[in-house]
Amino acid sequence: MQERNAAAQNTPDAHREAGTGRTRGRPRVMTVPDRVERIFDALHAVYESAGMDGTTMDAIAAEAGMSKRTLYGLFADRDELLGAYMERMRRDFVRDLDPADLDLPLEGRLRRLLGPCPRTGPPGLPVAVLRVALAGAETGPRTARACLSRWVARDRSLIRDELDRAVARGEAHIPDTARAAVVLESMVRPSAVDLLLDPGAVPGDADLGARFESGLAMFLRAVAPR
Hints:
By secondary structure, the chain is mostly helical.
C-alpha cells in the first residue's frame, strides 16, 4: 500500500490533478491524503446517484476527476477502497481517548469515546458498505470484511479498557467487563441487523443522540457501585 501511495505521488496525473483542475501557472501537487479525500467525496456522490451497484472504480475515478491509473495506484480494487472507507467511518463511532480524557469520570470518558458525531456523506452509504462487507462468507470482499472484524474487536477492546479502569477506580461494579462492553455497545447504537434488514430505516442524528443518551443512562445505573 505504501509503495502504491509513493508511486501515485510521482505519476504525471499527480501534477495535473490540482485542486481546481486549472493549468494556469504551476499546479499544486495533490498529496495522497488530499486525493483520498477526493476519492471518498466521489464515492459519496456516485453512491447517491447510482447506488452501490453503480459505484464502480470507473465511476469513482470519473467523478473524482482523476485517471483510473491514479485511483488504482491508491486502491487495488473497490474492496480495498471500501475497507479504507470503513476505517474512516470508525472515527464517527469510537474515538480514541487523549491522556487528559482519562481524568474524566466514567460517564465523561464514555461520552468522549462513544458519543455520536454529526455524520458526513449519504446516510445510507455506511449500511450499504456494511452489507457488502458481510456478503458471501466464501466469495465476499475479504478486505472490507477484515476491516470490519478489526473495527469491532478494537472498539470493544477500547470500551472494555474504560470499564476495567472504572472498576479499578471504584466507579462501577462490573463482574465481567468483556461482556459488559458488548452490552453497552448494543445499548447506545442501532442494531446492525435491523439496519441490514431495513436500509430505509437509517436513523437520523437526533434519533442516534436520543438512543445514546437513554442507553448510556440505563447502563450507568446498572453498573453503579453498590
